[in-house]
Amino acid sequence: MKKITDLQGTFELHNGVQMPYFGLGVYLSKDGNEVIHAVKEALDHGYRHIDTAAIYNNEEGVGTGIKEGSVDRKDVFLVSKVWNTDQGYDSTLRAFEASLERLGTDYLDLYLIHWPKGDLSKETWKAMERLYKEKRVRSIGVSNFLQHHLEDLLTSVEIVPMVNQMEFHPYLVQQKLLDFCNANHIQYEAWSPLMQGNIFDLDIMKDLAAKYNKTIAQIVLRWDLQKGVVTIPKSSKKERIIANADLFDFEISDEDVKLLDSLDRGKRFGPDPDNFNF
Ligand SMILES: NC(=O)C1=CN([C@@H]2O[C@H](COP(=O)(O)OP(=O)(O)OC[C@H]3O[C@@H](n4cnc5c(N)ncnc54)[C@H](OP(=O)(O)O)[C@@H]3O)[C@@H](O)[C@H]2O)C=CC1
Ligand SMILES: O=C1CO[C@H](CO)[C@@H](O)[C@@H]1O
What residues does the NADP-dependent oxidoreductase domain cover (predicted)? Predict the structure, then answer.
C-alpha cells in the first residue's frame, strides 16, 4: 500500500495520471463568494484537488476561485461530472463544453458520469472516451456505479474508467466493491466521507479522536487514505478546511483500521444507485 506522506500526495491512475488523494468537495457551497472563498482557502492551505459537478450550480465560482487563487491552474486537479439529464453521446459533449465554459478552463483533470443510467451510460461513455482521446480531459471515470453497473459498462468499453466515486464512510464500506475496483485498477474515491456531518455524533469516533489526539474528521479521512481511497470532504469554513487536511503527522494502527471497517452497516446518507432515477 502506498505511503501517505503529505497533502499533495497522489495515487496513480491506470493511465499514469497522478490524482491527489485528498481534495475539497463543494456540493452545497453556494456559487459566488462562498465557493470562491472555499476554493481559495483550500488552495492557500495546500489542497490541489477540487471536486464539483454541473448539478452543483457552482462551477463558475469554482473557476473564479482557481483563477484568483494562489496556485496555477496546471497544478490543480479539477473534477466535474455530467448530470443525468445530459447523458447520451451528443448531449455529453455539449455538457462538457458548458462545464468548461463555466469553469473558465480548457480542460478537466477528471470527468465523471455522475450516476449510472442503464444503456444510456454506454453512449455517454463513448463521448467520454472521445474527450479523453482528444485530450480535452486527462482522465475519465464514473460515480455511483455498483459492481453490476461496472460489469455491464466494461462489456463495451475501449478505455476502462480510471475512477469510481462512491458514497464511502464507516457505515458504508462496500468492501467487495472496493476490492472489485482495485482488482480492475479503478481508483476508488469517497463521497460524503464525513457522513454529511453525521459522523461527529458517533461515540466510537469520539473515543478514537481522543486516543490519537486528533479530530473525528482527521481520523476518518486518514482511514480513507490508509485504505487507498481518495477523499474529498466538503467544508466552506476556513478553519475546518485547514483542520480537515491536517492528516499527515499520525497513522491509524491496523487494528483501528479494522475497527473502523467493522462499523459497516450498509447505511446510506445519499441516494441508492439502484433506486435513483432523475
Ligand atoms: N458523486 C456523487 O454522487 C456525490 C459526490 N459528492 C462529493 O463529495 C463531497 C463531500 O461529500 P458531502 O456530501 O459534501 O459531505 P461530507 O461528508 O464531506 O460532509 C460535509 C458536511 O460536514 C461539515 N463539516 C466539514 N468538516 C467539518 C468539521 N471538521 N467539523 C464539523 N463539521 C464539518 C460541513 O459543514 P461546513 O461546510 O459548514 O463546514 C458539511 O455540512 C461533496 O461536496 C461532493 O463534492 C457528494 C455527494 C454525492
Ligand atoms: O453529488 C450529488 C450531491 O447530492 C445530490 C443529491 O443527493 C446527488 O444527486 C448528487 O449525486
Answer: 30-264
Q: Going by CA atoms, what residue is nearest to atom 34 of ligand 1? A: 235
The hierarchical CATH code for the domain 10-269 is: 3.20.20.100
Q: Which ligand is nearest to the CA of 278?
A: 2
Catalytic residues: 56
- Evaluate if pTM is beyond 0.95: yes
57 lines ligand 2 (CB under 6 A): no
Nearest to 142 by CA among 120, 174, 169, 171: 120
What are the structural domain ranges in the chain? 10-269
Q: Give residue-wise pLDDT tens across range 35-80.
A: 999 999 999 999 999 999 999 999 999 999 999 999 999 999 999 9
How far away, in angstroms, is 199 Cα from ligand 1 center?
11
User: 181 burial class (0-12, 13-18, 19+ CB within 10 angstroms)?
Assistant: buried
Looking at the predicted structure, is the pLDDT value of residue 9 above 70? yes
